[in-house]
Amino acid sequence: MRRLVFLIASVLVSGLFLWLALRDVPLQDIVDNIRQADFGWILIALATVGLGLWTRAVRWRGLVNNKVTVMQAFHMLNITMLLNQLPLRAGEVARSLLATRSGVPLMTAATSIIVERLLDTLLVVIWLSVALTQAPNAQPDAVRLATLFGVAAVVAFAVVIIFARYPAIAHRILAFVERLLPFLKRLNLGRLLDHVLDGVQPLAHWRSAVHAIGWTIISWVVSAVTFCCMMLAIGIQDYVVLMAVLSLTLASFSIAIPVSVAALGPYEGAVRLAGDAAGISQLLSTSAGFLSHGINVLGYAILGTIGMLAMGVSLSDVMKAGESKKEESASVAAAETGGG
Fold it and tell me: Where do the structural domains in the chain lie, given as residue ranges?
């Protein structure tokens, strides 16, 4: 029953955002635009989708201490991206379980994903704040807010690195806060802090930190190139790089919405919003949103299917494993909170 409710909610959310994305833009005009798109740029974009996933695989391999080959990491990541297009989004959990088959400890695999998310979020916030300062139609309040978030993200990242390097400082601060607010002790924040610090440990050592940060930058540059190709394919000629960066960053936040069908609707709405800020026509920006979303999903589907064949697993196998592990983790978390 819970799964059915989630599926219905996903469809409703996608429908709502699609309606918002398509306001005042005839659907037939979007279809015509996509049909007339430059096929050469589309092929290049599809190739860069694969290249972007490859760079992320190299990054993840380093975060799991090189216990898998680059090709194994590539296949696991592709399976992850495919599963994340489906309701329930069990991709990350499935990746952790697949990694254990290659000798990666489950905790190492899980914490590596925490580091990935932290680095990706930091870069996206910084890029968005910089891009908005260059957008001709961006609202001043939005620019100031984005700049504030960008500075806050850098400061927070620096604090996390310090805590990872010197965990005793973090525990002393938590103990001080709990003395001021005794009711917090019931939330078992000490155990949660330990999990977080374990997750960011790779960033406490300069070699692994340089590897992770360097490949994060490379992977996002490749993703920006993918979006540039999509903009050119659909006929956008002005502010191509700006539009690509705005679309990429806003679409990344839209994908984080947990209830939707493959981010359909939120993604297109995000690209349209990017177009509004960059001064691109609503027809072109909405068309670019549908085209870029479709190309990315196509790339994930092709590479994810190849990954499952290479790893010798089926879609149902990894989905069941991922869903069961998510339920188990939720039960453990609830038990720990209740026990605290």
Answer: 11-339
